[in-house]
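Collaboration report, partner site 2.

Our partner group contributed sequences for two proteins of shared interest, and the home lab folded both. The records are reproduced in the order in which they were received, starting with the first partner submission.
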Amino acid sequence: MKIVLIGYGKMGKAIEAIAQKNAKFEIVGIFDKEDILTNKNLQKADVAIEFTTPDTAVANMYACIDAGVPVVVGTTGWYDHLEAVTEYVLGKNGSIIHATNFSIGVNLFFAINTIFAEMMQQQTQYNVRISETHHTKKLDAPSGTAITLAERILSRLYSKTNWIKGESDNKNDLEIISKRIDDVPGIHEVIYTSDADEMTFTHTAKSRKGFAEGALYAAQWIKGKHGIFTMKDALEI
């Protein structure tokens, strides 16, 4: 499989390192976020993998779709444009798989979190909050992963009506506490607390390897498909 990497930061380099060790993959192009994408330099790829910034991600997706190249989108923070992107992709018969986190472990964590939130619907003695910790160069806060966790909880636990960044005095708010520490790939915690006890569900990334492997898994999965997908589709969750 021939892959173009769009974005050559920490994630782009991690994907490149794993792809180079696997005969299934060939990196045929690497573009940093400032590079101009054209049909000519995209069309040699079977799939593009995009990890850039919220400000550049949408234009990169459109460039890939125009070139007829499926794209794996790992950038977060652009979801206000999801409706427009969906319309564009479907109108061009293109294909995108997007996720706030491509780690297979995290996506299983999402599923377990959703099930547990539904179980806690009747346990009103518990309050729930989310904590997320990342490296200091991460551009968005809360993380896309934390927001996905929050949205899954809100879809099942009706005592919470919306998520909020930071602490809140409103019991209906689902707090997301964000911390930024050097060289932390990602720690996410969902914490249920009552007067009697506390339960914490934690996913800790040891490195970016899991994210990179998941992105390459998604790249293999989306080849030959058309539409808008997420890792729930790829993992059949």
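Second partner submission, folded after the first:
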Amino acid sequence: MKNNLETNIDQLTESYFYDLDPKLIADRPVAGRHHSKLMIYNAQTGEITHTYFKHLAEFLNQKQMLVLNQSKVFPCRLLGEKTSGGKVEVFLLSLIHKDGKYPAMIRSNGKKRIGDEYKFGELSAKIEDRSAEGDFYISFNKNESELLSMLEQTAHIPIPPYIRDGIADAQDLEDYQTLYAKETGSVAAPTAGLHFTNEVFRDLELKGINKAFVTLHVGAGTFKPVTAENILEHKMHSEYFDIDQQDLAKINSGKEIIAVGTTSLRVLESCWHEGKIELPKKDKPYSTDIFLYPGKPVHSIKGLLTNFHLPKSTLLMLVSAIVGREKTLELYEIAKHNDYRFFSYGDAMLILR
């Protein structure tokens, strides 16, 4: 049982800081996704193994099942001009709209007012409303199906700002997407899944290790820094999710679940109820703003496959909820010492509970 002082330390945002040499921040994935490094931490034995992702199947067994997030990243970063002159950047936060109004962030010089219009070639947008948090709601001159087609022609893939200053190129169209991406809607890739290749899936299948899918559309809030001194004061972002009935049945088949990525875990833990995964008893679209950190029990999984996350991020706090803050930071120091690559295009860690 932790004393109050230790508990308070776990609740301080500053307690999740670590130093990182910029050279360890991956700006491209390794050639051949499954050649990324993989650290395996067995929380029961304390054993740490260093290997490569292509050997993942060797460390799992038939009692286990992978649950992966099949959300697909869409080009959502629009660079254009104001009708009054000057440049503008519109970052579309979601394809889920209300009465044709889409949530977005807008960067431009000068004040941004309701009614302002922006041009991106044939595509144009207009500010319709603004939230209390400062996000905007915009409408487009295209309908829903036309909009996605126009975005694919006009917009940029939204790689994070710590990768090449957020400026994507043609290679990122392929690199920043999982092999199994299916349901369009994310503004950031579920990066733990970027390591998977057909060869890895083949090896898993040969060993009898099943997989199931969930969908969680990753929002820009994933990158939102925790600015509060105490993590309990942080307002967690909300993200849309779903699980189809066939995958839900697989997930509840009695296998030990290994969540692939923090997004998959957030879905599973949001739906965990008395030993089962159940969808909310409300109308779609489902959403979750679950925040996992030390002291919050994690019920739904026996393991987590994840990348190495930013200091003081909610993702680092989520990993700390599983193995503890001190152990998490210790594992990160080991990763640094062994030249693991960090963040979205970096290497992976498998935690077995």
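Feedback sent to the partner group on the second submission included the following. The longest strand covers residues 123-130. The chain has a mean pLDDT of 94.
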